Predict the 3D structure of the following.
Amino acid sequence: MRRVGALMAVCALAACGVGGQGSPAPPKLSYNGSTPFPAVVGEAIALTPAVLGRVDQYTVTPALPSGLSLNPRSGVISGTPTQPSAPAIFVVNANGAGVRITFPLVLSVTEPPHGLTYVSPVNATVGAALAPLNPSIAGSVDHYTVSPLLPPGIVLNGSSGILSGTPTQARGVAPYTITANSLAGNTRFILLLTVTPAPPRALPKHGNGILARRLTFASAPLPGGARTPAEPATPFPESSCSQDAIFGKRSCKRCAYARQIRRWKR
């Protein structure tokens, strides 16, 4: 019985792998951080691999973004990115104990917004469309905000940062803080804006072109103190005689002179 019990114990130990070499667990590889990992230009990072099993060497393809490197022994990805890059897949290869495993690391490098400027100060007029004001900025921007609220009629495009519109109320000069935001950071600019009242409208000029006619007469003394138009020194040209569109009479000095002479003869 003792021999049978000892044999069963040996079999149990062998089954459990105690006192002997069991089959090695397959290596597994992963990295901390979200997917994609949002690296930022100018900010140091360190990504440490989580490994199950024995790994002797690490490699990566394609090459990591500028400023980052992979430690071939520890598998740590570290450094300070120097240039922005779109999200991309970097395949990390781990070799060890005759087994090769890979992990697709999705990595992006964003540049925080900086250097935000606008043309300032700005003078707007009630009722006159404001020429669009475009921001000048470097880096990645997700959206724009402004504080306090802009004068009525003027709006800020949250995606492009363009200021435009037609103001409807006059406002004195005031500062407006425009902020460009992103996951990597934000930057601000203070814009000075004035809205002046609309200029007064000019009144129309009223003139009476029909009644504003002049007849010029030269007079000479007559017997009894009467005065009569004098004969012109030179005859009036026929081309100076024109038909009056209102009264149906010819209106020129020559015709007016002849009519006056006829009245005196009566």
